[in-house]
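Researcher: Here's my situation. A collaborator sent me these components and asked whether they could plausibly form a single complex. I don't have experimental data yet, so a predicted model of the whole assembly would be a useful starting point for our discussion.
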Amino acid sequence: MTSHPEPNSEQARMSEYDIIKAASEFIDQYFQHVHRMGSDAHEKRLAEVREMIEKTGTYSLTAPELNFGAKTAWRNSSRCVGRIQWSKLQVFDCRRVGNVKGMFDAICKHLQYATNKGNIRCAITIFPGRTAKNRDFRVWNSQLIGYAGYRQPDGSVIGDPKNVEFTKLCQQMGWSGNGGKFDLLPLVLQAKGLDPEYFEFPQHLALEVQLSHPKFDWFADLGLKWFALPSASSMMLEIGGLQFPACPFSYWYVGNDIGAKIICDPLRYTMLETIANKMGLDTDKESSLWRDFALLETNIAVLNSFEQNNVTITDHHTIAKSFLEHLESEYKTRGGCPADWAWIVPSLSNNITPVYQQEMINYQLKPNFMHQDDIVQSYKWKGKKTNRGYLGDGDALSKRYKATILYASEGGKGERYGRTICELYKHAFDTKLVSMEKYDVSEIEDEELLIIIASTFGNGQPPFSGEGFFQHLEDMVLLNSNVAETKESKRLTQSCEKYISLQKEQNSKPNGSRMSIETSSSNAGILGNIRYAVFGIGCSVYPLYCAFASAMDVLFHQLGGERLVAMATGDDMSGQEEAFQEWAANVFKTSCEEFCLNDGMNLDLAIANVLGTGEDVLFPERFRVSVATEQRETDICEAIEHLHGKKVYPCGFISRLNLQSESSTRQTILIQLDTQGAPELEYEPGDHVVVYPTNERTVVQRVLRRLDYVRSPDVVCRVETGKKSEKARLGNVKVWTPVSHLPLCSVRRAIEKYLDITTPPTPEFLRMLAAHATSPKDRERLLLLGKGGVDYDDWVFESQSNLGEVLESFPSLRVPSSFLLTHLPLLKPRYYTVSSSSKMYPNQIHLTVAVVKYRTRGGRGATHNGVCSSWLNQISQNDIVPLYIKKSNAFRLPEDVSKPIVMVGPGCGIAPFRGFWQQRQVDLQFSGTSRSERRRLGIGDMILVFGCRQSEEDYLYEPEIAEAKEDGTISNIFTAFSREPDQPKKHVQDMMKDNSRQMYRAIYRNDGHLYVCGDIIMANQVRQTIQWIVSHHGDMSEEKADEYISDMVDSGRYHEDIFGITLNVTSVLEKIRSEKRRARVLVLGDTPSPRRQQVSPRRSMTRTTSSPSLHMQDLRAKFTSSSPSPPLEGGVHKLRRRITATVLLEDGHDDDASDPEADQVDGTSSSPLSASHIRAPRGGFFGDSDSYTRAPYRSPSPSRGLYRSPSPSRDRGYYPDLRGRRSTAEGAKLIR
Ligand SMILES: Cc1cc2nc3c(=O)[nH]c(=O)nc-3n(C[C@H](O)[C@H](O)[C@H](O)COP(=O)(O)OP(=O)(O)OC[C@H]3O[C@@H](n4cnc5c(N)ncnc54)[C@H](O)[C@@H]3O)c2cc1C
Ligand SMILES: NC(=O)c1ccc[n+]([C@@H]2O[C@H](COP(=O)([O-])OP(=O)(O)OC[C@H]3O[C@@H](n4cnc5c(N)ncnc54)[C@H](OP(=O)(O)O)[C@@H]3O)[C@@H](O)[C@H]2O)c1
Ligand SMILES: Cc1cc2nc3c(=O)[nH]c(=O)nc-3n(C[C@H](O)[C@H](O)[C@H](O)COP(=O)(O)O)c2cc1C
């Protein structure tokens, strides 16, 4: 966001050169910080800023620049001892606020956010910058919260003497205090240079702590108290030559700021002698050190009271220690850190704090906070002083916290969950939903709350839409940690494998209190002020379950982000919907708590409405289908581009060949497509083709038969949404506007080409369908399935019902076509691995496609045909195939042709290897080259390991393979026949084991590359086989061999192209399902023991904030939904182990929340940072809480202002006298 530039008279007085210089320096700093120095974006921004200044005399900062500038200003504040927190500063950009009411509302939000019920957070609110001198925004209070000081006729003061002048002003403005010792002063606010207005301080926003002493009961009777949130509201923020005179900044107290500098200070509350007398000290004699004793006990009372009340505070020793840590880290990362010794060393016990002996250099860096004149004294009133502000309720701003829902999804589930959570967050936040692919990463630091929904693809890789984002975060971590590591290998593999164990490790750590986290500089990453939560969706059949979500969770943590709740996962195999709903409700509630938005908002109602967990049926919005005036439907490629945001190109059909024998009951086809010379469709072997299919005619017909439509399904129509218009003269009239995302087409075309009618409907969709059921029985059943629980899982697994079947099995459904057109998910594209070389077949793309056909209900039910493979199996010359090419970074022939390659691909997994051998044939023009000739040329072996059922039935490409062997392209072929009559069953991994010596030589000895393509379980077994081969022949332990394989992955020598679960789908799924079901029965069948009821709430991943104990329902959710389940093989064994562990746990064995095994079992592992367990932070801030306000108050002399000119030398010669005294440093211990 860029605010509008306005002329700046002050800056106009600065030479254009100076302002451009200041701006350019800052813009450079910013781009350096985001690691984009010298990039096009950097150059463009510099030019833009220069142009703005030349035109208007000033410029404006983007939101991320402001954010960075404010944090850096704090980082550069040489007098602040609490800077270790600088990156965690919450910046509220209020530059668009236009009046005092807006300022008041923003300050209320600031107070609420920063106070956070005592768990104090650092925050700054930035109001519009200086434009013309007399149009400033200012907060007249020196601190947002302060107590009045009433001067009495005898000269004494009731209340805080510091505020006597300000109190008088407030009274002149019409405010009347109660005349007490602790009356909250009103907020006096000024906008646009107009006379200020005062606003009664909202009492509920000032958290106050009554002071008591752990040993002296009488201390409480003194009636002392202090407020929890220190703030500085009179300083000015300067960023890149721009000035922000109103920028209240709040932090938390260091104990002696209150004890020594307020309660006992002779110019403030003057309680020292009273306390000494109460303690029975001898106040007649200085040498009794009564002052010191009383001071110390007062400080103890302050620390104790705050801690007892769970309000953040720190002591001067801890903050001094954390400052040294910060100093060290700053020297490492920035080569220095400006520090003003006199202000950093605490006034109490100064020489026994670690900062005392530390050499410091004081100099001034920009951006920074600057001192400004005391406006109370200098302001010339335009009108009468009486000026009471109109009281705001703060509601208007309740939605100003940004929440970004980021999703990475391949199949669309992540997007759907993202949309749901977005709806939920809209109740309280300013929410947007973005795909990772479309997310502008340069804005990430400006985020406040990120909710991440991520599926996993490949073998533990990000979905394609998450690749760039993943890479960016990894780069940020590397650059941030200054790790001299090449990123190229990561770029190639994109494997998230390592993050699974890192994520578990982090989860298994005990709940860190905020204190320990926030005083450590290692956590002060550049995303320090982002709160985040991750929901992973995946499938436990895959060995690297939810790996990408784990990567997101770990990377954000490494960059300093703060987890709102522990990562949760939803498993395709069981209870995904339930897991999502539980997590969504939990994370939403926690977010509202974190941002203090839970007062007066019915969160449960919002949750029930959005997640459909309430009893009410969700009624779809009102839509209608009307006949379009236009007769022509939108072109298909255009429509797809519009719907999916991807540019697709039409390919023509050339030919199709069934690669299986005629006697086979299955089909695998070679499809040849014509790219029509489109340069965008150029590819290399290993790339993927993304095809947008058409639904099967019979299924379309079944759906159309049950629909209402206008006239005929073939009429071109438009879908419109209706809203009531209250302005209409004839009363409430509906206004219909077209639904913009849908292309102009007939109902038939939409259902045939754009919408998904074969994936079993989601629970949400079933709930909405229920609203269209006319029979109570159908409605009830649909609502039950719509809950997304076990019944839904079983129903989907058993029936795999497509939409046609659903409509038929609920005969009372009356579904308008408008509902389907607006609520069905989009028909997703399918990936195919290119199966040709464009060098051999220019302008052609070949695909090897296994035609999917199966019967539901374990072979007893209806026959289902795969959408895309079946469509490709019947297209003809008249059809076009809309597609695009998805480049593969990893699955490429090695650049070094001398490296041997082993290609493993059973069934249609052979697809990419045909491209490989064709490419080699062309590249090396091998025809006729003998093996010895090839050796002489230094060309590595090409070994093919192929598997099929029978040599006579499905040996795909047998003649081509023989030819490639013949011409020397392929050096060896190992074929595994699994169902060859009278022969033992062999799979590809068996052939690798049988020929292990050769495999070892090629891969280990000669640094070869391994390529595996096809089914995930096969790929996992191949990996285990390779591990065995390396361990066996290399005489190394399994662990070492595993490390070797991981190195292969990291160095880009182990390549996988995973299609998903494609082999023996039914039996694999059945196996996993029955294991899951058994686990559930074991858990549910067990009688709840008292011990189980006592399971710590900390163990529940998604119930960390509210449930005091877990009940059966919770347990079921835990074990059926959110458990990250194991891979199949040795997954099945691991799964068994897990089940045993589950039973043991529930039988009442060790219930210790720190038990790592138990954490692994329920997958809910102690939530290290769940909001309810976050303790008040330690560490702290300004050595003197009043430091920004005190200096001008005490020391009006400009030479003693807040900041002194930069001095690169050690700054111990002269200490600014904070008490109006002056002392020389040498030998003198600073008296404060
Ligand atoms: C990166 C990548 C590359 C790929 N490359 C190729 C390739 O080169 N060649 C190739 O043939 N495929 C390839 N695939 C798979 C391809 O994308 C499609 O998934 C496949 O063709 C099936 O799509 P479809 O539309 O025909 O079937 P769909 O309509 O999508 O139906 C498939 C679904 O049906 C269900 N199903 C299938 N069999 C059964 C069963 N026996 N019992 C119960 N349910 C079942 C499963 O839920 C399955 O997901 C690749 C996939 C990926 C991710
Ligand atoms: N997305 C999808 O759903 C999808 C995509 C593509 C294909 N398909 C379907 O899947 C089927 C697969 O076609 P396909 O040609 O690729 O393969 P396939 O012909 O079913 O199998 C190829 C070979 O792989 C073997 N195999 C099975 N499990 C293995 C394992 N774990 N490790 C190693 N080898 C294993 C098979 O042996 P066995 O005799 O032991 O099975 C067979 O010898 C097709 O019939 C198609 O319907 C589905
Ligand atoms: C080709 C392919 C590879 C997959 N790889 C993994 C994996 O490594 N780990 C995992 O947990 N899930 C994996 N999955 C499962 C998906 O993550 C899961 O189906 C998820 O629900 C998809 O969500 P989406 O529709 O948002 O992409 C894979 C699915 C496919 C099709």
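Model: Some features of this prediction you could bring to your collaborator: DSSP finds 44 helices and 43 strands in the chain. The first strand starts at residue 90 and ends at 93.
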